[in-house]
Automatic annotation (TrEMBL):
Domain Lactate/malate dehydrogenase N-terminal stretches: 150-294
Name under which the protein is recorded: Malate/lactate dehydrogenase
Organism of provenance: Clostridium punense
Superkingdom of source: Bacteria
Cited InterPro entries: Lactate/malate_DH_N, NAD(P)-bd_dom_sf
A matching Pfam family: Ldh_1_N
Amino acid sequence: MFYYKYKDKLIISKKKYEEYASNIPEEHNIKSEINTNLLTSSSFEDFHEISQDEGEEYDGTIYALNLLNPKYSRRSFVVSHKEHLFIEEETLDLLKKPQKIEEEKSLNGANPAIPQWVADAIEEKRIISLNIGYENWKDVIEYKEPEKWKINVVGLGDVGGTLLTGLKLLGCEKVSQLGLYDRDENKTNRWKLELGQILSPNMVERDINIVRLKEGDIFNCDLFVFCVSVGVPEVGKEVQDVRLIQFKGNSKIISSYAKMARECGFKGIFAVISDPVDLLCKVAFEESNKDQSGIVDFKGLAPEQIRGYGLGVMNARACYYAMENKQTENYPLEGRAFGPHGEGLIIANSIENYREDLSKELTQKTKTANLEVRGTGFKPYIAPALSSGSLALLSTINSQWHYSANFIGGTFMGCKNRFLKGCTEVETLEFPLQLFEELQHTYKLLDELYNS
């Protein structure tokens, strides 16, 4: 392994940086996807090689260089296991907890021996995998998390307004400002008044600032929240999967905002609340990474900047229905939710004591919960806005575990994860074989739905 210092940060690599330009891997036709001129020695002119002993003395965040096709790989992620330190391909296997292997061997024998202090840093969540296939990969090293977050919300309908209410009530410790934007100025004015008049008598000095935004100010924030939605069926006109009906209309709208984020050089989180979150995340990633002529150059939003918030309410609904049956009441502690907010959803009754019959029953109840609410004569937006929206967003900025869709191997897949140091750490589990096969089916389904 090789060790470098860059702006007082420690960089580790399994080979010398000079070798990357001359030894580009062929996986996924990477040579046609990246600008190889970025990998010349001038790209690393500020790198200074140091000894392993000097590296061992460093106690900050460590960045592990890797070169993968940006079309199918994140720019960065928190390394959870030593087997993930220098991966050669990003797949759904990143959700699996690696089997115990010999201390000095990697999963496929491809990694060099890992010193104990590096293994310790992985356990301490101090190592970030850094994909130099992205032109702006140095942005990861220079990232600084805000002490208090400026959050801008676009789309002030039922979901957006409810989400903002949750953030106003619960976010005073971490949120400094809530920015409001809707093309209907009456909605913006309404929520400026309403939110400004929600105030605890004990929080005057720590209150969140509420501001109306002009379109040009939308990306002047740390967290952008997309709540615009078209094509939501009226009550009484229910369909089995509402979110897919919304995809066509919402994808056109989110494309324009993704391009705007690129133009603004947006460095924060691009959060998608509108349905279908996983597919819209992919639209945002692809559209933001095209230049004006439509050529993909990967100069837009990085995959880890884009997060889809729809799975939180599915987990909450699963918890609700799990309490109806003694056989599933262990779900809140042992179970997990995976996949999209709709068709393809997987609710596992338990990871350690997985039962397919109980899981399928719980999944079906969770998937159709929105229809049950519609049966009362109302649109099902309150629980989604709070469980998938406000609460999950606050968990994100507090680096707490939560459910959201994240980029894995070119597809945005919902799972439990947390946001650390500007990157994502996904929860890894010891999956029963049958359950992981279900996950792979959903993963493939999401790709097919996007390309259909």
